[in-house]
Amino acid sequence: MSGLTPIVVWGSKGQAKVLAEFFDASGFRAAAFFDNDPDAVSPIDGVPIHIGAPGFERWLRAADRSTVSFVVAVGGDRGRERLEIYELLAGAGLAPATLVHPTAFVARDALLGTGSQILVRACVCTRAVLGRACIVNTAATVDHECELGDGVHIGPGATLAGCVRVGEAAFIGAGAVVLPRIRIGADAVVGAGAVVTRDVESGWVVTGVPAVRTARAARSGA
Q1: Whether 144 is catalytic
Q2: Do residues 166 and 147 make contact, with C-beta atoms less than 8 angstroms apart?
Q3: Structural domain boundaries of the chain?
Q4: Which CATH class for the 99-210 domain?
Q5: Among residues 50, 101, 144, 153, which one is catalytic?
Q6: Over the stretch 171-209, which tens digit does the pLDDT of each residue have?
Q7: Which overall architecture, per CATH, does domain 5-96 show?
């Protein structure tokens, strides 16, 4: 384990467990976990967990922040929350880590934003551009020339065909398909298994085949 960069993780549940599986293959070792849930348990034996902002502040006072990286393990349609935590940790002087699973494919000319997570067998294809703190989940595909804003999450097995643009903090559910040149607005949610054939306005939930508007996203405030 010597030579591995220490990394701290905000989140301790499913997403954190998925990331922990390949920390060492990415050159990292878990140093601490943080979670707002007072009942949270560390996903790795022997690695401490600290609760909420007070726990983070206590840890920070004792840490050598110049040597520590971080990742935010908050998935699903909580992109805004993920970005807020990202800003908190980066503002404290920690370095955002970009994690790519060894089985994933990332084209040489694709651009990954800091803090992004590319998981098992995911594909990020030629000239794709990802913003900060994006998640491309298990076996998901972001095809050529797609653009993802900050905090976007592409669910397991979802497919973005070429030249799709996805706004900040949008969530594309498991197995969904977004056809070429479609625009998905900020904070939108595409339901699992949906087939998106037309643009989706910011803050809307769409479901079905073909996808149609069904509600406003809860975080849109409407």
Answers
A1: yes
A2: yes
A3: 5-96, 99-210
A4: mainly beta
A5: 144
A6: 999 999 999 999 999 999 999 999 999 999 999 999 999
A7: 3-Layer(aba) Sandwich (3.40)
